[in-house]
Amino acid sequence: MKKSVAEGGWNIFVTWGSGEGFDNPIGLQAHTANGEAGWFGWPKDDLHEKLRDDWALATTLDGRKAIAAKLQENAWTYVPMALLGQWAPPVARRANVRGFIPLPAHVPFWNVEKV
């Protein structure tokens, strides 16, 4: 809500995302910096948006890496978010079930068997 805290608004919120959500600059809404049309908090940074476009249009891996380095450098200047750490959700499973493949956000069941 875009009001001062005294008026019932907020100036910070907590959320989370998986590693694959953060793996490229165009795959997560939180990476946007296009103001009113963007992520909550409405960050605005024209250079960041240009670099995101450049990354999407790059034709080589080396080109994307170079643009990603510029994105990282720019993010230190305008600070779109504060990443506070990592966590892993607790998982419980029966002792007679095995074969789970450890992935960060999804539990694939194609390798699982009951023994």
Instruction: Assess the beta-strand content as a share of residues.
Output: under 5%
What is the ordering of alpha helices and beta strands? Answer: HHEE
What structural class should be given to the helix and strand makeup?
Answer: mainly alpha
Helix fraction, binned, reads: 25-40%
Helical segment tally?
2
* Strand tally: 2
Low-confidence stretches: none
Instruction: Determine the oligomeric state from the structure.
Output: single chain
In one word, what is the shape? flat
| Radius of gyration over C-alpha positions, nearest whole angstrom | 19 Å
Query: Which strand order spans the largest sheet, edge to edge or round the barrel?
Result: 1-2
Report the average pLDDT across residues.
85
Describe the biggest sheet?
Answer: 2 strands, antiparallel
Chart the SSEs and their pairings.
Elements: H1 46-57, H2 61-78, E1 97-98, E2 113-114
Antiparallel strand pairs: 1-2
Helix pairs in contact: 1-2
Q: Could you name the key traits of this structure?
A:
3% strand, two-stranded antiparallel ribbon, mainly alpha
What does this structure look like?
The structure is a single chain. With 115 residues, this protein is mostly helical. The chain has a domain at 5-78. It is built from two helices and two strands; from the N terminus they run H-H-E-E. The protein has helices at residues 46-57, 61-78, and strands at residues 97-98, 113-114. It has a two-stranded antiparallel ribbon with strand order 1-2. The longest helix has 18 residues, at 61-78. The N and C termini lie far apart (52 Å). The model has no long low-confidence stretch (mean pLDDT 85).
